[in-house]
Amino acid sequence: MSQIVTADRDGIRILTLDNPPVNALSFALSAELLPLVRAAEDDANVRAVIFSGANGIFSGGADVNDFATEPTPETKTIRDVIAAIERGKKTYVAAIDGNALGGGLELSLACDYRIATTRSKVGLPEIKLGLLPGAGGTQRLPRLIGAQAAMQMMLKGESVAADEAKKRGVLDEVVEGNVVDAAFGLACRALEKEPKRRLSQRQAELGIPGLTANALPFVAAQAHKMVPPEDNGGFAAHKLIDAVEAAVELPFGRGIAREARLFDELVRSAPSAALRHVFFAERELGKIPGLPAAEPMKIERAGVVGGGLMGTGIAITFANAGIPVTVVEPSDEATERGKQMVFGMYMNQVQKGRMTQEEAWKRGQSVVYTDDYAELADCDVVIEAVFENMDVKKDVFKKLDGIVKPSAILATNTSTLDVDEMAAVTQRPEQFLGLHFFAPANIMQLLEIVRGKRTSPQTLATAIALGKTLRKKGVVSGNEFGFIGNRMLFDYSREAMALAEEGVPPYRIDAVMKDFGFAMGPFAMFDLSGLDVFWHIQQAKTEMKGRSNIVDRMYREKRIGQKSGKGFYRYEKGNREPIRDEEAEKILAEEAAAAGIAPREAGDDEIRKRLVYALVNVGADLLARGVALRPGDIDIVYVYGYGFPPHHGGPMWYADEVGVKSVYDDVLRFQKEFGDQWRPAPLLAEIAQSGGTFAAYTSKELVHA
Ligand code: T1G
User: Is residue 106 annotated as part of the catalytic site, yes or no?
Assistant: First the structure.
């Protein structure tokens, strides 16, 4: 089926990309487009060419799927199409409506003119895939808007709204209405005045007032300092800076060659493969094998019970999605704090220029506080976010069940407790599930959607759609203790504590995990979430207790972390930066000795393996038992909820990257040395012994009551 629609109007040829859903510039589409460009070039009746896009988008860029295959000499890519335009004599206009991203914007940059509708966005987000713009973007954008501005735009991988893009000089015109008509007018005007404006003919300026191109080495050196190290998430960023440097110092043709070489290196790299995995894993989340088709319910009004930090964060998340929300909070003090948080959050957005005063006011007004449950009667969904205690939660649901309308969905924000036990106190277990947000709920993108034994397909489908509306990564989880994220975190924490008991200081363990790419190490994380949380969980689940009494001791000595100014680290007032605390290390040593644990040496490699492989092993177990549906789901939970380095793809992808057999061998070794808490998950053993990968693992069908 053809992916390009061709039309002629008064000697102007309109080539419309039509490869739904995002007009990806695949090898196949490029092979079709190239001869069409050549035909236009050879056709004397054609004065100019307009590119546009069908399906409400210009183009989402190159087809990311194509990067998994090695191109052959015969393969045509968008680069070949752009090279033909570059050599061409005709005038080219890009008529953009919707997104023009990656190769889509690069195709536009190869044109002489770019015009877009007000709803359009343009950007070069390749860095988010561990790549750089590989079809001329690193050479043409600096020539259009200056090297500094171009580099910033590409390093952020940002999508820029049309009006802002015009201000920056990326677009020539921004229009309302039919962009192809407007482009036709622009092409006619251009043919009279300035038919050719190829960016390749320009010199790339630095674009920093007062600095000439001589300052390039200094600017590039500064830029290299600002991005993460190559082996810790910065691989693509450093190559991107090199490519922009080439745009300023080299002639166009040599710059393009440099860009191609750097791109080819990145596309074959492990970090890019990992980031592309995360890209597709995110888009698989809502596809639930075995879920009977069900029309999601419309969510127009929401309710939250509990106006604390979590409840208020959840309320703001609904307000940000344009859904009015009522928060039930009996305490005046908590209500006041909640209102301050809402107000403060929106004022902050205004100060940062991210929203207008009016928009902030409207959103702030859409969060209403009350102490009267009856005000929730008309909500389509109500989320409970009260203290983590089963009896307290059950009381809330008994009350809600009698108040909210029959069609309403009830959800718990519990992070560990049994969803079915709560559902059972209501008359609507089919309309009951867990919606587990992560603190701060209005910032963290992860949402665990916990399906109960009796959660209906429609309730689940509604929750998945709601997750998208709230701009969350909604991961479906089975109802087991700790669901996916926290269940795995327990084994990760167990190993962190074990290493500390063996005498490895917390700051060293944290340093190893930060070097691996985690946003923060386990001990800084314990201090952030609060050891009181772990203490309460250990009280509820005694099997979660470690070999020693560390958590107990820390809790009794009010060393609960940032909240009390000291935990495994100490903190100065108003400063969240962890400071090494020898007193904490002394407590660790005392409790380890009391538990009869002998100190021993552990290398960085062992530290990393014990923590990451603990995640892999329990992850494999959750997959085998259908608590998690796909390895990719687990990876999204850890990348978006627990700071796992995206350039390693998540724990399950990382196991494939390292080799499942090698992970399995190390797990067996740890079992021998440290005990049966390291018994290999049967699925890990199976995949290792079959020489397979988690990526090839077929997800289980969703079992429904
Ligand atoms: N390649 C292949 N598939 C893509 C795709 C792409 N570039 N973009 C989207 N899809 C699929 C996606 O997997 C999903 O599939 C469906 O389209 C809808 O996507 C040479 C190297 C465009 C803003 O990084 O950011 O150009 O799940 O759910 O929310 O320099 O998709 O339905 O089967 O995200 O409306 C650079 C990536 C590529 C942009 C639309 N481009 N895409 O968002 O829909 S590299 C990007 C997006 C490149 C050149 C280089 C978003 C979107 P399925 P969706 P959406």
Answer: yes
